[in-house]
Design goal:
homodimer; 398 residues; alpha/beta; Rossmann fold; seven-stranded parallel sheet; three-stranded mixed sheet; globular
C-alpha cells in the first residue's frame, strides 16, 4: 500500500513510518520542520537528541526514496500528492499543543489557522488528485472533553435519544452515519480537532471521501519495536506545551523534581503507549472504510487519573532506585478535576487491537530509556508557566 | 447602550444600525467593504443601488459620530474596541455565502479563514478590552442541516437521552449549559458558523464571556420601518451566491424569468423578513445573558418549503399583474430534497418576539420595492452555475 505521512518528522510520524516500511508498505512523507521550530521558540528541547533522520533512511529499506522535507508545505502538497498517488494519507501535520494554543492571540491564531486551514487544503487537494484515498486523521479524545456522560465513538448511537423525534436507524444507515456526538473541547488547540472533524465529515458526506478520524488519548514512551536500538530516531518532549503527562512525569522523575500533578489530580483520561498508537494507526490504514464513510475510532489503552499515573511513575522509579516525589500544583487549566469518565473503545479491538494491559513495565522501560539523557532536562521547563486564563505566572504548589 | 456593529455595511448591519439609533442606543460600526468587493468579483451587483451611506449619517442623529470604515480591519479592531468600550458587539462581519465557499479551494480557504480566524481574533480582543461585553453573533439555521429529528435551540435537552449515562439536569445547570446539539452543516460556509459556535461556547466556558449565538434562517426583503422611504440605504442581492431564495425569486419574477426551484423543491427551512431579523437582534441586544452564559436562539418566522415560497411569489406577482412562471432546475447542492424538519423557536418569543405571521404581504411589498430597479437585473446571474461538487456548469431545468 502506498502511504503518505504528513508530519512525518513528528513524535508519531517517524515511528509510524518505520513500522509501515517494516510491514512492506511503500512510505513517503512530508514535513516542514515547524514542530522543531516551535519547540525552539518556547525555549524547550527534545530530551533525546534527534538524529539527522534523512541520513539514516538508507537503513530503512525504502524501495522508492520518496521522503521529502518541504518548507513550502502549502505550495508543494498538491504537487507531492500528485507524484505519490497515495492509497492512504496519514495526516499528523498539525500544531499539537493545547498549552501552546492558550499562550496568546497569535499562538491561538497560528494553531487554528495551521490546523483547520491546513486540513481544509488537504481535503481540496485530495479531491483534485486522489478522492479515493483513505484519509487517516489524528484527532484527540480531548474533543469530547469531560461531558459527564458516556462517550460513544464519534456518533450519537441511534437508539439513545427519547422523548423527541429522533433519527431512525434506517435514516442513519442511509445517510452514511449518525449525528456527530457533541464535543466539549477545553482549549483552542482541542477545538481545531473538533473543527477538523466536522470539515472531514462533510467531505465524506458531500464528496464521497473515506476517512478515519482518530480520537486519541495522550501517548507516552519513546521507543517501539522498530526503533528500540536507536532512541535518537524519535523525539521526546517533556515541557508543559509539547510533553504529554506521563512523559513529563518521567522527565521530572529522573532529575528528582516533584511530579507536577495539576490541582486535585482526579482528572481522568485514556492513555496509551507509543507502540499501541502505532499498532492502532496501522490497523486503521490496513482496514480502510468504504467510500463515503466517515469513521471515528476512540484510541487509548485504558483510563487513568493523574494521581494514578503519578503513583505508577513513583513505583516504577522505585524499582530503578529513583526516589520520586509527588506534588500538587495550582491547575493552569480550567477543567473539571473530579468527574465521570467513560469513553467507549470497541472499534479498534474489533479490528484486532490488543491493548497493552499493564503500563507499569512500559513506564519502567521509559524511565530507563531516558535516564541517559538526564543532563539535558531543562529544569525551568518542569513547572507550568502558562495559565489558561493567560496570565503568565508559574503555578505554585498547593 | 453602546452597541458596536462589526460588518455594519451589510444587508443586516445597516438597517440594524438605523433601528438601534432610533431606539436611542449609541451605535458605532466597523466594515472593510469586502462584501462589496466579493459581489463585484463574482460579477454581480446589488439590485438597489447603495447610497454613500456615510454622507447620510448626519440624518441619523448619531450623538458621537463614531462610524468607521476600515480596510485595516485586523490591525484596527482591537484599537477600535478600546476607543468604543461597547456594552454589546454585534458580529456580522463574515463571508455570508454558502455557494461562494463551494466555488473552489481558494474561496473555501478565504471563507474559513475570514470567518473562523476573524471571530477568534475578536474573542481575544474582547478578552483584553471588554470581557464583560455581550457578543451577539450571527450563526445560521444551516448549522443544524436537516438531521431528520427535532432541532432544539442549540443544546441537547437534558431529558432526552436514555439508555446511556447522561448529563444530569444538575450537571448541566452547574456547567453553564448542556452539550451542543450536533451540527450537520452543508457547505464550507455553514461549517464556519459551526466552528464559531464551538469557539464562542468555549470562550464563555473558559473566560466567562456572555454571548448570544443566533441560528438565523434565510432573511428576505429590502426595507424596514426605519428605511422605508429610502431603499438606497440597504442592499439587495439576488444572485446564487449572495441572494437568499425569496430575494432571488422576486428578482426573477420582476424580469419574467422562471423561478429557479432547485430539484424537487421540498427542501424546508425557517425564513423571516428583514424587519423580523432586526426585531430579534434588538431583543437579543437589549436582553443580555448573564456572565459566562452561552445562549443559542433559533431565529425565523416559520418554515416553508421551496415550492411553497415559489407559490407565494407567484400569487403575490399576480396581484401586481406579473405573470410568474416556476421551473425546477438540477440542484447544484447536495442536500435532502424531501425531509423531516422541526426546529424549535421558543426563546425569542419568550423575550417578546412577535413574528410576522403572514409573509404574503411582505413578499408583495418586496416585489413593489424592487420593481423600479428591474433594468439592473443581470439576467445571466439568475441560473446557478456553481455545482457544489464544484464542476462549473449551469444547472439545467429538469
Amino acid at each position: 500500500m502506498k502511504v503518505l505521512i504528513l508530519g512525518i518528522d513528528g513524535y508519531l510520524g517517524w515511528p509510524l513510518a518505520l513500522h509501515l516500511i517494516e510491514r512492506g508498505h511503500q512510505v513517503s512523507g512530508l514535513d516542514c520542520y515547524i514542530r522543531r521550530e516551535r519547540v525552539d521558540r518556547t525555549g524547550c528541547n527534545s530530551l533525546t537528541p534527534i538524529a539527522d533522520r534523512l541520513s539514516r533512511t538508507h537503513t530503512l529499506r525504502i524501495k522508492q526514496p520518496s521522503f521529502v522535507m518541504s518548507h513550502d508545505y502549502v505550495d508543494n502538497c498538491e504537487e507531492f500528492l500528485r507524484s505519490v498517488q497515495p492509497d492512504a494519507i496519514v495526516h499528523l501535520a498539525e500544531q499539537p499543543s493545547a498549552a501552546y494554543s492558550m499562550i496568546g492571540v497569535e499562538e491561538a491564531v497560528e494553531t487554528q489557522t495551521d490546523n483547520i486551514i491546513g486540513t481544509l487544503r488537504i481535503l481540496w487537494y485530495m479531491k483534485r488528485v486522489c478522492p479515493e484515498a483513505h484519509l487517516i486523521k489524528l484527532g484527540t479524545m480531548g474533543e469530547y472533553g469531560t461531558p459527564n456522560c458516556d462517550i460513544p465513538e464519534g456518533e450519537i448511537p441511534f437508539d439513545c435519544i427519547s422523548g423527541h423525534k429522533l433519527p431512525s436507524k434506517e435514516y442513519i444507515e442511509c445517510s452514511m452515519g449518525g449525528l456527530i456526538f457533541p464535543r466539549r473541547a477545553g482549549s483552542w488547540y482541542h477545538l481545531t480537532k473538533v473543527h477538523d472533524s466536522y470539515n472531514i465529515e462533510f467531505a465524506c458526506r458531500n464528496w464521497g471521501f473515506r476517512s478515519t478520524d482518530i480520537m486519541q488519548g495522550p501517548v507516552f514512551g519513546v521507543t517501539t519495536d522498530d526503533i528500540k536500538d536507536d532512541s535518537e530516531l524519535t523525539r521526546f518532549d517533556y515541557d508543559e506545551c509539547f510533553g504529554t503527562i506521563i512523559n513529563r512525569f518521567c522527565a521530572q522523575a529522573i532529575v528528582n523534581h516533584p511530579l507536577t500533578v495539576y490541582g486535585v489530580g482526579n482528572q481522568t483520561r485514556g492513555y496509551l503507549p507509543l507502540k499501541d498508537s502505532i499498532f492502532c494507526m496501522t490497523l486503521a490504514i490496513e482496514n480502510p472504510p468504504k467510500a463515503g464513510e466517515y469513521r471515528v475510532f476512540n484510541q487509548f489503552e485504558r483510563t487513568y487519573s493523574a494521581n494514578e499515573l503519578a503513583e505508577i511513575v513513583k513505583f516504577a522509579g522505585a524499582e530503578l532506585n529513583i526516589d520520586v516525589k509527588i506534588a500538587h500544583y495550582e491547575n493552569p487549566r480550567k477543567e473539571a478535576e473530579t468527574h465521570y469518565y467513560n469513553p467507549y473503545r470497541n472499534k479498534l479491538v474489533e479490528l484486532g487491537y490488543k491493548p497493552t494491559t499493564d503500563i507499569f513495565p512500559e513506564v519502567k522501560l521509559l524511565l530507563g530509556d531516558i535516564l541517559p539523557f538526564r543532563d539535558r532536562v531543562l529544569i525551568d521547563k518542569l513547572i507550568p508557566q502558562y495559565r489558561w486564563d493567560t496570565s503568565h505566572r508559574k503555578s505554585k504548589t498547593v
